[in-house]
Amino acid sequence: MDTPKTYREIVKQVIRKYAKLRPSHGNIRLDTVFDEQSDRYALMQVGWNRGKRVRENIIYIISCPDN
């Protein structure tokens, strides 16, 4: 059985893979957020599109299992 550490690494690999994709429009960047102490992992898009502010979570994962 996989360990929580293995699950965390898999989650980070998947988020990094998606972070390499670029939005097709707007001036938007993708930011990864890895908080291993609190077991929170995210991929956010931040920037501007058609004069409007963009700030959204694309992926947000909390509480990876410890058992």
Automatic annotation (TrEMBL):
- This chain belongs to the protein called XisI protein
The species this protein belongs to is: Okeania hirsuta
**InterPro entries in the record:** XisI, XisI-like_sf
Q: State the organism's lineage.
A: Bacteria, Bacillati, Cyanobacteriota, Cyanophyceae, Oscillatoriophycideae
Highest taxon, organism lineage: Bacteria
Pfam families for this protein? XisI (PF08869)
